[in-house]
Amino acid sequence: MKWFTLLLSISLVSCAHRETTYVYGSPLPVADPVFKGVAQIFLDREEGQVTGTAFAFADNGSEIYMLTADHICQEVGRGVIATTIPPHEGTREKYAGRVVYTSEDGDTCILRLEEASGAFEVLRFAPESPRTGDRVYTIGAPSGAFPTKTEGYVVGHDFLGTEPDESGDPKMILITSVPAYGGNSGGPVYNERHEVVGMISAVHHEYPHSSISVHVEFLLEHVDIYFKQQSNLHFQ
Q1: Residue 224: helix, strand or coil by DSSP?
Q2: Is the CA virtual torsion 31, 108, 43, 148 positive or negative?
Q3: For the chain: N or C, fewer Cβ within 10 A?
């Protein structure tokens, strides 16, 4: 969709971080299983190493599959290192993997981590679209502080009031008041039932209080495309 590519070219800075709900380093104040499903990722590109966030959505008993933002990955085959949340004692675990799917049109990337089964909690996708006013959260690595949890509310399902597409459906982006910053890209946006409703992608320069996410329906479209291309793989 050309509108999504244009949107990212206007607004891609991933994202404005204003208030922190929780930064890992002490016992969790509440039980939140999403922490165990999120990774800080590192990729080497021509301009140097870049970092962002990814989250697990499938585990086939050997490999873990994760979603993140395409503007971090940029090309299939690129190597990636994914790290778990820091333990209270010891060091974070690291897992090597590859970029196996990218789509600039939708800012979606899929990672495959080798021999990582069980290392990350597989997150569930929400069965229904989020509604305006729903409370949502993200966990990511703003400025490298991983994992940092922030919260906000769903503002809408399109670009701050633009018209629906030709079919009459809302455009496949999600606007929330969740604060974010560089390093949050690729982090899951999830509801109070710990179900993924979107993925952090960018922030709008004119409205830094609002972060822009890829809508859950669009994420599922890309997941289906990838697994249909792999005849020996199945996603449920």
Answers
A1: helix
A2: negative
A3: C
How confident is the model over 5-34, as pLDDT tens digits? 434 433 444 443 233 344 455 555 557 999
- Output the pTM of the full model: 0.84
Query: What pLDDT is stored for residue 87 in this prediction?
Result: 78
Instruction: State pLDDT tens for residues 136-176.
Output: 999 999 988 899 999 999 988 764 444 555 565 555 789 89
Tokens for 19, please give them: 């208030």
Three-state SS string over 183-199 comes to CCCCCEEECCCCEEEEE
Encoded amino acid at 49, one letter: Q
CB 1 within 8 A of CB 172: yes
Neighbours of 135 (CB within 10 A): 14
